[in-house]
Amino acid sequence: MYRELVSLGPVTIHTFGAMMALGFMASLFVLDRMNKRFSVLPPGCEISGVMMNLLLAGIAGARICHVVEYWHQDGFDKDWLSIFMVWNGGLVFYGGFAGAVAAFLAMYFRRRGKIGFFEFSDFILVALPLGHAFGRLGCFFNGCCFGRLASECGRAGEIFGLSFPPLSDASYTQWKAGLLSSPALKSLPVLPSQLFEASALLLLFAILLLAYLRFHGRRPGVVTGLYFCGYGVFRFCLEYMRGDDRPANALFSSAQMFSMPLVAVGAVFALLALKNRLRRRKADCSRD
Question: Which residue(s) pair with 14 in the sheet?
């Protein structure tokens, strides 16, 4: 766990923030190359501006969601300034997703008529898993979003289990649960759920990129549907590996509750894309 990447006097570069910056740049690079190849964005619409709007809205939404969910638990009610300390971690992806969707809709309606809705969403969502994967690596280095006790996971726990250092989030959580005598001890081995999710996100990125290259201009909405379904399914499953504070006595976590409608919406988007494609084929046949 390396929360601080570089510290030079009063200036400290936090690893979590550095990974977010790398994720942003990687996503920007991919979208810039795609835009140069397919000319997706209308004239006057800069990809850097689009990405910055989405990033800021996403961070704001992710932080608001975390603060609301962990208001008392993380002590925000006692230290209001800590609300703005994003570099310490504490971002909820689905809150960030909601914030980014709001920013996306605002940009789309401002340019309505210049670019199609699914043409725009397919383009943006291709790179989202790539940036998100870097964010999950930031979670790993920050020590948050850790997995379940390795001892509960059989062979997988023996292979992948690792301990976080003293005073880490894992140590505090296990101390509060009575598993450690002090949070100043290194944690019991846990699953690196952050690395599992980062790997799944990179796989999803590869699938979406291939789908975009194959279906661009022919099936708008397919990539959007694949993202919603793909992320919703694997996030629902990965939640069972999480070991950080989960809602007590709840059948599903908040992330799982959000994942289920996400998959349903994604399936609808994919079916609509297929339906539109079938309509085009019928229209082409009627012309013949």
Answer: 4
Residue 249 CB contacts under 8 Å (≥ 6 apart), including other chains:
none
Could you report how far apart the first and last alpha carbons of the chain are, in Å?
A: 64
Q: How far apart are CA 277 and CA 75, in angstroms?
A: 52
Q: Which of 141, 277, 145 is nearest to 214 (CA)?
A: 277
List Cβ<8 Å contacts ≥24 apart for 106-115.
107/50, 107/53, 111/42, 111/45, 114/42, 114/45, 115/40, 115/41, 115/42, 115/45
Per the domain annotation, does 255 fall within a domain? Answer: yes
Confirm whether 45 is domain-assigned. Answer: yes
Q: Which two tokens stand for residue 254?
A: 């908040």
- Comparing CA positions, the residue from 164, 209, 155 lying closest to residue 186 is 164
Domain count, the chain: 1
Looking at residue 9, its amino acid is: G
Q: Rounded CA gap, 74 and 68, in Å?
A: 10
**For each of the chain's 288 residues, which pLDDT tens digit applies?**
678 777 777 777 888 889 989 999 999 999 999 999 998 888 878 888 888 999 899 888 888 887 887 776 667 777 777 777 776 667 788 888 889 999 999 988 887 778 889 999 999 999 999 999 999 999 999 888 899 999 999 888 889 999 999 999 999 999 998 999 999 999 999 999 999 999 999 999 999 999 999 988 788 999 999 999 999 999 999 999 998 766 555 688 888 999 999 999 999 998 888 777 545 544 444 444
**What range defines the domain where residue 118 resides?**
4-144+164-169+189-281
* Look-up of token digits 């997703």: 97
